[in-house]
Amino acid sequence: MVTSEKAKIAMLKATNKELEEERKFKDEFITMMAHEMKNTLSTITSFSGMLLDERTGKVNESQKTRLLHIHDSAMRLNNLIRDVLDFQKIGLGQVRIEKNHYQLENLCKEATLAMSDTIDLKNITINAHVDSVTIYCDYNRILQVLDNLLNNAIKFSKPHDVITLNAKSDGKSVLFEVIDTGIGIKKKDQPKIFNKFEQLSSGINLQGGSGLGLAISKGLVELHGGKIWFESTFGKGTTFFFTIPNRLSFSSQSH
């Protein structure tokens, strides 16, 4: 019996080792392929951008329309690849958060400016109310969270709606709020809102292009030591909240 138990344990260890090696191979393969794709897409976006800017000569309207489609498609695919890599890195504990001091107003201004083209297409307005403080965070990662939340708010809003971005400090932390008056989220969908690849019962993707946006946002906020949550009433809109500890926060007037 002892020999039989030892054999079972040995087999389990061998199986676990094989599974671990397969997982590592899969992770390395995904990372390698994603980087190769990003390099190729970088070339596509760079050259299509040059052609659109007419740096190599005039293009007619028909050519410009097709070039714009190529450029936008490449950018969307690039964002999808970024999401897959980020989600994988968060799951493996490989995302590094590099904090520094930044003006909260500058961070929120950049986040809203990045939405300019999208909100213009739907005639949506973003109103921002931001405290004048310095925030201690990884600038690009918090910008990524705001980008995900604002994109979702725009996606589920109606033309001419108003989206509100609030960022308030109590000295210990910064509370962000992204408020929309769009379609809202049904109660039965709410428990799975931060799950990967989820869709609303209406068939609409909860998280944008990759289906990973909110899952990534949750991971990035938690890596900052914060938390993220939401409130929603179907047919009336949704508010996403997240907090970032900001123990080193101080008024910008103290500079």
Q: Any key phrases for this structure?
A:
alpha+beta; 5-stranded mixed beta sheet; 8 strands; globular
Layout: helices, strands, pairs:
Blueprint: H1 2-52, H2 61-92, E1 100-103, H3 104-113, H4 116-122, E2 125-130, E3 133-137, H5 139-155, E4 162-169, E5 173-180, H6 213-223, E6 227-233, E7 237-245, E8 250-251
How would you characterize the largest beta sheet? 5 strands, mixed
Contiguous low-pLDDT stretches (5 residues minimum) are 249-255
Q: What is the rounded distance between the termini?
A: 74 Å
Rounded to the nearest angstrom, the radius of gyration is 22 Å
How many DSSP H or I helices? 6
Residues in helix, % = 40-55%
Mean pLDDT: 83
Residue fraction in strands: 15-25%
Care to count the β-strands? Answer: 8
- Tell me the strand order in the biggest sheet: 2-4-5-7-6
Content-based structural category: alpha+beta
From the spread of the alpha carbons, the general shape counts as: globular
Q: What is the N-to-C succession of helices and strands? A: HHEHHEEHEEHEEE
Structure, briefly:
The chain is an alpha+beta fold and 255 residues long.
Q: How would you portray this structure in words?
A:
The chain is 50% helix and 19% strand. The chain has a 5-stranded mixed sheet. It has a 3-stranded antiparallel sheet with strand order 1-3-8. The C terminus is likely disordered. It contains 6 helices and 8 strands. With 255 residues, the chain is of the alpha+beta class. The protein is globular, with a radius of gyration of 22 Å. Helix 1 runs antiparallel to helix 2, helix 2 packs across helix 6 and helix 3 packs across helix 5.
